[in-house]
Amino acid sequence: MPYAGSGEISLYYEETGRGTPVLFVHEFAHDFRGWEMQVRYLSRFYRCITFNARGYPPSDVPERDDLYGQDLAVQDIGAVLDHLKLDRACIVGFSMGAGTALHFTMRHPERVLALVFVGGGTGGNPDSRDSFIAAARRNAQIFLDEGMGSATVQRMLSCDPTRIQLLHKDPRGFEEFRRQLAEHSAAGSALTMRNCQALRPPLSNFEAQLKATRVPTLIVAGDEDDPVIETSLFLKRTMPAAGLLVMPKTGHAVNLEEPAAFNASVHDFLVAVEQRLWREREAENGEPDKLDTQEQK
């Protein structure tokens, strides 16, 4: 099995296809398997790389709080790229993975050809942040006490108002999601929830860095994913090279609910970036800002 080292942690990864590398970063409630429909389509055109975050078998599951957190998750993206000897890649992140991918992009813009930010920003509303942190800590203890396959955890992570659309649209896909969720490590999920989800700062804290980030970015959200709508709008208004795609009657798991539309939109975006047709927002004087001139490799 292929592994990339990140400090003392080993991260499991898979790669399919040839061409420009596209690295996928998964959400909290899923793992690398959640990108299967994207890999099957996009690997016809690109070198698609998926990996499991620390705490998600078959990646290592350390049992210390200090071995989890936003900074380490960002480090892990770089570790996978370094292991594969990739100077630059397109990065697609979903939810927890979207936030991690965005932080990596802000810190290392020279390594990111293009960014797709999907369903990110939960917990970033200042009015509800304290309750979000308290719930994250409480949920982490439930994972440890009951396990990821318990009815309580399954209801919590698969049947909330932002998730239930998948059940209505694709019952088989919904059951697969629940089955794979039950296979996750309770310890890994709890430590990720406690140290990454609960402690990550809201993206609104990074307005200056976001304004300076000129990497071509596609922001994707479902219109029934209320916790991320405001963050998506904030990023669109703040990042000069960002575009926003909102999918109607769609919840959190956009890539699972509407795979055909999602795949086509991501493919169109990547082609536009490769052809240098993804323009930055027009400047205040009415003249277009310069095209992204990053050398494509």
From TrEMBL:
Q: Does the keyword Hydrolase apply?
A: yes
State the Gene3D superfamilies in the record: alpha/beta hydrolase (3.40.50.1820)
Q: Which residues form the AB hydrolase-1 domain?
A: 21-259
Check the record and name the SUPFAM superfamilies matching this protein: alpha/beta-Hydrolases (SSF53474)
Record-linked InterPro entries: AB_hydrolase_1, AB_hydrolase_fold, AB_hydrolase_sf, Epox_hydrolase-like
* Gene Ontology CC entries for this record: membrane
Gene Ontology MF terms:
hydrolase activity
User: Which keywords accompany this UniProt record?
Assistant: Hydrolase
| Source species, domain of life | Bacteria
**UniProt name for this protein:** Alpha/beta hydrolase
Organism listed in the record: Trinickia symbiotica
The taxonomy runs: Bacteria, Pseudomonadati, Pseudomonadota, Betaproteobacteria, Burkholderiales
